[in-house]
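agent> Task received from the user: take the single chain below, predict its 3D structure, and emit structure tokens. No templates, no multimer pairing.
agent> Plan: (1) validate residues, (2) run structure prediction, (3) serialize to tokens, (4) report one or two observations.
agent> Step 1 OK, no nonstandard residues flagged.
tool_call: predict_structure(input=
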Amino acid sequence: MRGVVFDVAVDLRASSPTFGKHVWAILSEYNHSMLYVPRGFAHGFQVLSESADFVYLVDNPYNPGAELGVVWSDPEIGVRWPIPNPIVSRKDFSLPTLRELASHGQLFP
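)
tool_result: status=success, residues=109
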């Protein structure tokens, strides 16, 4: 890993007692920390350094059709992002809120 990132995981499992809750960690080349993001969680991050490289370990090949996500600024989830007005991709900016995902039955069981 190179750089520093603010890494977040949000529980999207409808039957979970921690549904809609999030955890975060600062991952860096200095603290050598890792964050385990299990199946059924959304994952997002902000780069806090000039640039960053980090590695994902996944349990399946990438499948765009199976992607779920929530908009980074969803107030119900309440992540306090270190950078309040980040540059966000068009795809990530247009993601639904957690409430919208739930109302369309698009959550993990």
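agent> Step 4: summary for the user.
The beta strands are 4-11, 22-28, 41-47.
agent> Done.
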